[in-house]
Amino acid sequence: MPRVIKSPEIRSAELLDCAQRLFFERGYDNTTVNDIIREVGLSKGAFYHHFASKEALLEALSARLARDSMAELQPMLEDPSLDAIGRLNALFAGSRQLNVELAPQLRRTFFVLFRPENLALFHRVDLAARELVLPAIADLLRKGTEEGALDVPDPEAFAEMLLQLRLIFRDVTQQALRQAELGQIEEAAQMLDERLRLYGIAIDRLLKLPDGTIKAVQPGFSRAFLEAG
Amino acid sequence: MPRVIKSPEIRSAELLDCAQRLFFERGYDNTTVNDIIREVGLSKGAFYHHFASKEALLEALSARLARDSMAELQPMLEDPSLDAIGRLNALFAGSRQLNVELAPQLRRTFFVLFRPENLALFHRVDLAARELVLPAIADLLRKGTEEGALDVPDPEAFAEMLLQLRLIFRDVTQQALRQAELGQIEEAAQMLDERLRLYGIAIDRLLKLPDGTIKAVQPGFSRAFLEAG
């Protein structure tokens, strides 16, 4: 059989697809670079030509997931039938839907990514996601302020603050996942729901909206995220 | 001369005092464990009995600085002549004063601590500071809500959010220090002042206070912090 020559982009995408499948099936720790190259049919040298390490592969994978999520959420951020508040609520609703659809994979990814020894990796992944999302949120806040739907003194700085605040969910989600592992799903779901509700109120207040305007949580979301299999 | 036997606490404190002086004089990178034990007159084995590494020493030093700062700021947090808003403003004023008094040392410490390769160290130092400060802030928010001076739905969670938001100053301070190093003190001071002003407004809004109530910045602070030598 003749050797198939593929472009570097196609090879990278194949490696990412394969890694995603194996990480999600077996977990990150239980997947080796050897497992991945065996499945894809590449040499170790060829693998390291694309990715410096297994960590670099996970980082690229997370960036791709962030890009894909952003592509799904973009229409909500630009929906001409909605004002800024409607768009923010549509963004949260869309994000919840994605979180439930991808729950089993996300739970496993978060479990790896939120570990103390993966702090540097988490930080890089967060930076990638932040760079992608920040301009869209700042734009939304700018337009919302111009339209009088909300009120921030500095759209860029306030967009950064909203994104900074969401990092509280690194510890909170980790705690909920641990509780859920111990079978305490109800307590975990209640705790996560409540923290999401308070995050929504914090956003309301930062944007000068009445408490309860931005719906960061909906009944049943946390339970569905923690249980969906 | 007879060998002087000192208690482990006194030895640890001596090592911390010496390390603090050397780190502040020469910088963290330019100080070795050998430098420190030579000055204190201890063997390497004895040093590692107290601290597992130079990093562990810096972590202990940061925890001590946080404790000392907290001890200085505690009276403001408990001043019976002030309401919750007065206490928060006194806390920021006291913190600014400490920042200017210790500016040369703090600038050097931040320069080390905010480097990407020291992220894990920064995180541990921040956790130590957070554990120390969180209960005091939560208490202040609880009393302030009871007295009607401010209004938060959950003092613990909102205290966590205020502390989470302040982490924006990791990047912002690093940027200001870099600009100042390049001689652009005026631009750096203006940028830092403005970000502190916006942080103050964010706190106002989270606590349901009119914009401008909490004074996180005062004219001249950032310039003094960046220039004090």
TrEMBL record, chains A, B:
- InterPro entries from the entry? DNA-bd_HTH_TetR-type_CS, Homeodomain-like_sf, HTH-type_TetR-like_transc_reg, HTH_TetR
Molecular function per GO: DNA-binding transcription factor activity; transcription cis-regulatory region binding
DNA-binding region spans which residues? 32-51
> Which UniProt keywords are given for this protein, alphabetically ordered?
DNA-binding, Transcription, Transcription regulation
User: Its domain of life?
Assistant: Bacteria
Name all HTH tetR-type domain ranges.
Answer: 9-69
Spell out the protein name for this chain: TetR/AcrR family transcriptional regulator
Q: Which organism is it from?
A: Mesorhizobium tamadayense
User: What lineage does UniProt assign to this protein's organism?
Assistant: Bacteria, Pseudomonadati, Pseudomonadota, Alphaproteobacteria, Hyphomicrobiales
